[in-house]
Amino acid sequence: MSDTISKNISGFGEKSDSAGNEFLAFTLGKEEYGIDILKVQEIRGYEAVTRIANSPEFIKGVVNLRGIIVPIVDMRIKFQLGEPTYDQFTVVIILNISGRVVGMVVDSVSDVITLSPEQIKPAPEMGTTFDSDYLIGLGTLDERMLILVDIDKLMSSADMGLIEKLAA
Amino acid sequence: MTIDMSQFFQVFFDEAEEGLAEMEKLLLAVNVSDPDDEDLNAIFRAAHSIKGGSATFGLSDITEVTHVLESLLDRIRQHEMALTSQHVDAFLAAKDVIKSMLDGHRHGASVDLNAAADVRKLLQSLSEGAGKKTKNAQALVGPGGVSRYRIELPQLAERDIEALQQELALLGKIEKADAEDGRCVFILDTAKGVDSIVEICSFLVNADDLKISQAVAARSKEEEQGYGFFAPFVPQDATDEERGYGFFAPFVPVNATDKERGYGFFEPFVPQGDIEQAKQAAEAAAHTDDEPPALAVTEGGEKKAKGEKPAATVHESQSIRVGIEKVDQLINLVGELVITQAMIEQRTGSLDPMLHEHLLNSVSQLTRNTRDLQESVMSIRMMPMDYVFSRFPRMVRDLAAKLGKRVEFVTHGAATELDKGLIERIVDPLTHLVRNSIDHGIEIPETRLAAGKADYGTLSLSAEHQGGNIIIEVTDDGGGLNRDKILAKAKQQGMAVSDNLSDGDVWQLIFEPGFSTAEQVTDVSGRGVGMDVVKRNILAMGGAVDIRSSKGFGTTISISLPLTLAILDGMSIRIGHEIYILPLGYVVESLQPATQDVKEISGQGKVIKVRGEYLPLIPLYQIFNIEPTFTDPSQGLVVILESDGKKAALFVDDLIGQQQIVVKNLESNYRKVAGISGATILGDGGVALIIDVAALLRSSRQLSDESVFS
Questions:
Q1: Above 60 in pLDDT, residue B25?
Q2: Choosing from B24, B48, B267, B299, which is the catalytic residue?
Q3: Same domain, yes or no, for B401 and B501?
Q4: Cα distance from A95 to chain B (closest Cα, Å)?
Q5: Would you say residue B388 lies in a domain?
Q6: Cβ <8 Å between B669 and A64
Q7: How many CA atoms lie within 13 A of B279 on its CB side?
Q8: Which domain holds residue A113?
Q9: B619, part of any domain
Q10: A163 contacts in chain B (CB < 8 Å)
Q11: In the prediction, which pLDDT does B192 show?
Q12: Most confident of the following: B366-370, B533-537, B598-602
């Protein structure tokens, strides 16, 4: 597993007061996105998945993450952004959403940025492929603009179908 | 910064529940006439820590009950009072109340406040009725523990004195006398201690101004004789009483010195308050003595001697409390280690043994160590069956008493270990079987005596390991199953049965839904729901149920379960490039069908003829949308599966092999997938899905309807 870029954020040295303002920046197609760094468990390379029959196309399947079965979601397919290619540069962000572990395939991961509240602007009502319900806002840093996603809400949504609905 | 209290509450609730369970176990096992000090201490400790914990968390209702309980226990523990079966009953009732209060705090369940108040009163009366052994009261207590106190009051208003007199009159007989200096003096004959008097007076008077002294009770000569030791006045009354008396104080040695005797008699006798009551109680006790308790709880093979008990206590204090998720994580990590080790072994296998001797030696050592490690880690999840068995003595006791039967409850193999997940799921089916045995199996004492058996029935629960399985048996020595009755009932319900069915087949009929041979529906059992549920639950755990019964000699219901749910024997199959696992328990056989044996039924899919039987053919590649290597069954293989008596043929490309697999839950991070019961990790680190064969077969009838699996 030499291609695994392991980044452990076990909370060592985190400052709790600034935690909400640190974002992991990643790209989907040509757009740059940011998610709360505390939701990220680790970052890995893409490896072969086991397909789950009759699941939506964006759910690639499941992988074995140190003994845990983790579903892998391809955001590029879900939001029709960029070409879903799988090579040694494809990155999987392993998220921990309220105790559930989910992998998310993205084109690349760039860096971790710190945004102050002033740098976060409310999202416009339209203009992104994401439902504005799932957006925290738009983050600006120099010339870059990040679409900040509320990944908790997005991954728990019925839209993704990752979590069993209570009624079902 | 706020502290999350809920986690501490959780710990308290867990501990309190354990304490209560321990207490119940000890109470049921305690020998009333000769209680073991260690047991009494353990019961007391349990009550004490619950009280401490509840007070810390401000759960005052629990604190109040445990406080009363604790003080009574303490006195029994200090040998100030003798333990009676009345006490044991009261303690058990208190335990139930505390449990319901705990549940009330924990889950918001409703608490029966009346029951709580009743128990508190009961405990209080038991504890107070016993009379407090104040330092100097001994010599001065009158018959039945009544002592005479002289209470000198400070100067008070007439109204207050009257009020006080009324209050004190509740404690016993009171006389008012005026002292020289105009102060008021009460002479009180009461069974209560000084404390109670002070308590009442302190409403009106400062306790320091109060002078209470023990007055010499006016006695007749006769009483004077009895004074010092009360032995004479009871035994002289009637022989009947002597018997009851013996029940109360069986530990008094006959050859004791007078002083000792008086002392010994004094204690057990005091609770009755006065002679009249004492007589009644003694008679009642004598009565109970004639009828030994409805139930004797013995631990059969487990507890042979008292000497073993301290060992159990030591064992407990040497355990630590660890969250189940930590254990599961450990198991996962070890599982991963095993896979990694397998990889290393596989890769070094191709090396030249001459050149890499040291490396290969190290690898084989790693293999051994890993296997040992895996075994020890898996054993952490194992729990002794005692966890389940310990719930039954109480239930058996209550149920037997309710039904007017006498049952001796015996357990064997309580130390046998079983996976925690399974142990929790076996409780309900076992409870049902035990209830059934008491209700239907064991007869009432008269019937038993008429049949030439002992008047008490024996119900035994046993557990033992047999290969990779655990066998749990519920055995009673009751009337046994009635073959004719079962057959008649089956015919009446329109089941296809014939008179020459084997016994085993007849017994299996009682697992049919809605089947009950009880003439009368009681609130214990007899509605005919239950046995089918029992069987279904056990099958769902991958187990089997078997009945052995002999008319007039009893019934044994034997449950066989796999040791753990986490590991199962699986058969790996291949379709296209994908690998799936079939639980081996469902697989009957596999074969390559001839072309002419595969028949198509228009719109209904295909069937396959196997030895004259037509089975529905389930093409897995269609259900799971896989690109298969073969689409013609005669080129691939079919696996015949059986579940719930239904058979079907699963069409696959190839069989890969048979192996033990570690079952992983798919739902912990994803959701339930139709047709899949779980996942496992293969030797190469990849994931394979386990097919839910039961669901697959259930829906095999509607295969043409694709929506079943979407």
A1: yes
A2: B48
A3: yes
A4: 11
A5: no
A6: no
A7: 7
A8: 19-155
A9: yes
A10: 671
A11: 65
A12: B366-370
Instruction: Say whether B624 and A100 touch across the interface (CB within 8 A).
Output: no
Return d(Cα B63, Cα B184) in angstroms, integer: 39
Domain membership of residue B433 (yes or no) is: yes
Please give the pLDDT value at position B566.
66
Residue B238, classified by CB atoms within 10 Å of its CB into exposed (0-12), middle (13-18) or buried (19+), is middle
Q: Which of B542, B562, B582 is the last residue of a domain?
A: B562
3-state secondary structure B554-572: EEEEEEEEECCCCEEEEEE
Residue B611 structure tokens: 């030895």
Q: Is B567 on the interface with A (CB under 8 A)?
A: no
CA angle (B166, B167, B171) in 5-degree steps: 110
Low-confidence ranges of chain A (pLDDT < 70): 1-20, 125-132, 159, 163-168
Q: Which residue has the higher pLDDT, B196 or A50?
A: A50
3-state DSSP helix/strand/coil percent for chain B, to nearest 5? 45, 20, 30
| A71 touching B (Cβ < 8 Å) | yes
Q: Any residues with CB less than 8 A from the CB of B131 and at least 6 apart, and which?
A: B137, B141, B145, B191, B192, B193, B270, B271
Contacts 24+ apart (CB under 8 A), B106-113: B106/B9, B106/B13, B111/B61
B454 and B544 both lie in a single domain: yes
Q: What secondary structure letter does DSSP report for B345? A: H
Are residue B401 and residue B550 in the same domain, yes or no? yes
* Cα-Cα-Cα-Cα dihedral sign, residues B258, B259, B260, B265: positive
pLDDT of residue B703: 46
In this model, does residue B315 exceed pLDDT 50?
no
CA dihedral B498, B500, B501, B507 (to 10 degrees): 100
What pLDDT, on the 0 to 100 scale, is given for residue B270?
39
Between CA B573 and CA B585 the distance in angstroms is: 15
B537 & B580 share domain: no
Q: Residues B434-460: what's their mean pLDDT?
A: 86
Say if B317 falls within a structural domain.
no
HSE value, Cβ hemisphere, 13 Å, CA-based, for A137: 12
B266 and B356 fall within a common domain:
no
DSSP helix/strand/coil, A106: strand
Supply the CATH number for residue A129's domain.
2.40.50.180
- Diameter of chain B by CA atoms? 123
Residue B318 has pLDDT above 80, yes or no: no
Catalytic annotation present for B48: yes
Grade residue B595 by pLDDT with cuts at 50, 70 and 90: confident
Whether residue B415 is found in the same domain as residue B546: yes
pLDDT tens readout for residues B122-163:
877 877 665 443 333 333 444 445 666 667 666 666 777 777
Domain that holds residue B406: 393-562
Cβ of B679 and A50 within 8 Å?
Answer: yes
pLDDT of B420: 82
B537-559 tens-digit pLDDT = 888 787 788 888 888 888 899 99
Domain boundary among B539, B562, B585: B562
Structure tokens of B110? 């409703």
A163 touches chain B (CB under 8 A): yes
Total number of domains constituting chain A: 1
Q: What is the mean pLDDT of chain B?
A: 73
pLDDT of residue B242: 42
Q: Which two tokens stand for residue B406?
A: 């006498």
Residue A133 lies in a domain: yes
Determine contact: B588 vs chain A, CB below 8 A. no
pLDDT value of position A42: 92
Rounded to 5 degrees, φ, ψ at B707 are: -65, -20
Question: What pLDDT sits at residue B254?
Answer: 43
At residue B250, does pLDDT exceed 70? Answer: no
Q: Do A53 and B673 touch (CB under 8 A)?
A: yes
| B374 in contact with chain A, both atoms CB, cutoff 8 A | no
Question: Residue B176 is part of a domain; what is its CATH number?
Answer: 3.40.1310.10
Nearest CA-CA distance, residue A142 and chain B, Å: 36
